[in-house]
Amino acid sequence: MSVVQENSSVHFVDGCEFEVKAGMFVRLDCNRCSRRLLPGDGFSPLRLECDSAVFRSVACRVKVVGRKVQYKLGGKSVRVIVTFVGDGEPDVDAVGWLYI
Questions:
Q1: Nearest-angstrom CA–CA distance, 84 and 55
Q2: pLDDT, tens digit, for every residue of 30-77?
């Protein structure tokens, strides 16, 4: 059972306690490789690395939505929604996995 509070940075999912923070990796369903979370810059709490020649990272928020922790290849992951923060444009959501 997932006990996630919107204002809390510590999450309890399926007996695991973790905090979403810079240095963790996210793999979006639309992408085959993982990207590292970077510290925020005041505009957003976190930034996600990208391969663009113009942008090195994009502003994002990560919300844990998974109810179970998945164990794969010796690692643990949980489902998340990554919201890419729009600067004067609508926010865009993508789903993926957070490696904890």
A1: 13
A2: 888 889 999 988 888 899 998 877 888 999 999 999 989 999 877 899
Residue 97's closest CA among 84, 85, 2, 75? 75
Residue 6 pLDDT level (bands cut at 50, 70, 90): very low
Range list of β-strands (E), 9-69: 10-13, 16-19, 25-28, 35-39, 46-49, 57-64
C-alpha distance from residue 97 to each of 41, 72, 82 (Å): 23, 12, 9
